[in-house]
Amino acid sequence: MFAIPLTENAELRTLDPWHAEEFAANLDRCRESIRPWVGAAFVAEGVDGARATLTRYAEARAKDAARLYGIWRDGTLVGGVLFVSLSVKTGVCEIGCWLEPAAEGNGLVTRACRELLDWAFGERGMHRAEWHCRADNAKSAAVAERLGMTLEGTTRESWPFDGARYDSQIWGVLTSEWKKP
Ligand SMILES: CC(C)(COP(=O)(O)OP(=O)(O)OC[C@H]1O[C@@H](n2cnc3c(N)ncnc32)[C@H](O)[C@@H]1OP(=O)(O)O)[C@@H](O)C(=O)NCCC(=O)NCCS
Asked: Where are the bilayer-spanning segments (predicted)?
């Protein structure tokens, strides 16, 4: 119900507070692999922490300011994609993603992001979609490139993590450039 098929065994659905246990289990399988690359607030601990993150996104969704979607493969939540932010006023949104290691390498996130971009440009009138990643996050940058985004710039030492600072990249795609494959 309310699902978009991504492959024959994977689908995209909204990820809501009632999925807290599944989300906590997904995070348990990928916490250490995603921690260097995503915002610290996203890497929740335990079911209560997972529910708090999902509730924060549900509240932002009610304000039309962010949205969270899960990717289920063979019935298991393996990751997801999100509008980190979305502003109807400025027409600018930012997309993000995560996957547990066992689900990488299958094109799930690229497919899911295409659904988000199509909705953002086609239904919500967004003008520009951004992708922010650590400059040394080659897998994330590869997704942005597959989505047809342009590397627009590098912000130096803007990503603090674990006592060090890393450069960040900003990728972007405009509504005039977007064409779903
Ligand atoms: C970023 C991340 C989601 C990318 O995962 P991913 O599996 O490489 O991305 P996709 O799901 O789009 O799959 C692409 C891979 O599947 C392969 N693939 C197979 N079929 C494909 C298809 N039909 N379409 C696209 N790619 C396909 C691609 O070749 C690629 O594999 P490769 O890197 O070995 O060449 C993942 O590495 C991750 O969760 N990292 C930690 C968190 C993170 O960095 N989040 C982003 C923060 S900015």
From this structure: none
Indicate if ligand 1 lies below 6 Å from the C-beta of 170.
Answer: no
In this structure, how many other beta carbons lie within 10 angstroms of the beta carbon of residue 48? 10
Q: Output the pLDDT for position 29.
A: 98
Q: Which two tokens stand for residue 168?
A: 């960040």
Query: From ligand 1's centre to the CA of 127, what distance in Å?
Result: 25
pLDDT score at 137 = 98
* Adjacent-strand bridge partners of 151: 171
Q: Which residue has a Cα nearest atom 37 of ligand 1?
A: 139
Distance from C-alpha of 79 to C-alpha of 27, rounded to nearest angstrom: 8
Q: Is the CB of 112 under 6 A from ligand 1?
A: no
| CB of 116 closer than 8 Å to CB of 134 | no
Q: Where are the domains of the chain?
A: 4-127
Q: Is any atom of ligand 1 closer than 6 Å to the C-beta of 53?
A: no
Whether pLDDT at 112 is above 80: yes
Residues pairing with 86 in the sheet:
93
For 154-177, how does the pLDDT look when each residue is reduced to its tens digit (9 = 90+)? Answer: 999 999 999 999 999 999 999 999
**Per-residue pLDDT tens for 143-156?**
999 999 999 999 99
CATH of region 4-127 = 3.40.630.30
